[in-house]
Amino acid sequence: MKMIVANLKLNLDLGEMIAYKNKLDNLVNENNYVVICPGYPYLSFFNDANYHLGAQNVSEYIKGAYTGEVSARDLSSLDVEFVIVGHSERRQYFNETEKNILPKINNILDNKMIPIYCIGETKEQKSRQKTFIVLEKQISNIYNNLASDKAQKIIIAYEPVWAIGSGETPSFKEIDEVIVFIKNFILKNYKIDTQVLYGGSVSGQNITDLMSVNPCDGFLVGSKALDIHEFSNILINSESEQ
Ligand code: PGA
């Protein structure tokens, strides 16, 4: 059973979320490991045994006069287990860099939750064959500044920026190579065995092939998590192969 992280992003309003959850409740069972990441207002909807609860973001700050922010303390008190950080949409639209991501990761860990740290190259970086350099930098900027007992709790999500929401994915061989690279880099430099997920245009169609990428420990799913038919295929396939 591989971990499936459903990132619902900024999509469903109250009525839509209720309808979506009703459908999802019929799909998800004990053969799945689903981390559901709805918007903040809907977190408590999914606080039941079928799901592991995830948040899409968290504040750099823990407490105080920071209007509009949601802290790791708040999330933890709502039974959130996982928090996505460093997503390329946060990097792109909200100018987040590892400078902002590091305190978020510290806050998540200090509040007994697990960070899902997203890394990945842009199309332009890929075409200049800079993928490995970019990934090394995104990893080192965080891991070099964290104690090892903290760093070992991080889950990495490899999400090529150009694959997110585009319908394009790297070849399965490329995904395999990059995930092995990430695992080896972290093992060699930090002596940590890391779980690595793949994200970027995961669908009901490509999940069977993606499941055969052995070093991959699970998937981060965006748009196709909203499509119940597609998501059902993803779940069924993620439970059938080990
Ligand atoms: P996608 O999004 O599945 O729509 O490509 C993935 C993500 O943003 O994590």
What are the salient characteristics of this protein?
eight-stranded parallel beta barrel; 8 strands; alpha/beta; single chain; 242 residues; binds 2-phosphoglycolic acid; 10 helices
Topology:
Blueprint: E1 3-7, H1 14-27, E2 33-37, E3 52-55, H2 72-77, E4 82-85, H3 88-93, H4 98-110, E5 114-119, H5 123-127, H6 131-143, H7 148-151, E6 155-158, H8 172-190, E7 196-199, H9 207-211, E8 218-221, H10 228-240
Parallel strand pairs: 1-2, 1-8, 2-3, 3-4, 4-5, 5-6, 6-7, 7-8
Helix pairs in contact: 6-8
Strand order of the largest sheet: 1-2-3-4-5-6-7-8
Tally the beta strands.
Answer: 8
Catalogue the unreliable spans.
none
Largest sheet: 8 strands, parallel, barrel
> What is the residue-mean pLDDT, rounded to a whole number?
96
N-to-C span: 5 Å
Compute the number of helices. Answer: 10
What sequence of helices (H) and strands (E) makes up the elements?
Answer: EHEEHEHHEHHHEHEHEH
**SSE-based structural type:** alpha/beta
- The proportion of residues forming helix, as a percent range, comes to 40-55%
Structure description:
The longest helix is centred in the last third of the chain and has 19 residues, at 172-190. The chain contains 10 helices and 8 strands. By secondary structure, it is an alpha/beta fold. The model has no long low-confidence stretch (mean pLDDT 96). α6 (131-143) packs parallel to α8 (172-190). It has an 8-stranded parallel β-barrel, surrounded by 4 helices. The termini are close together.
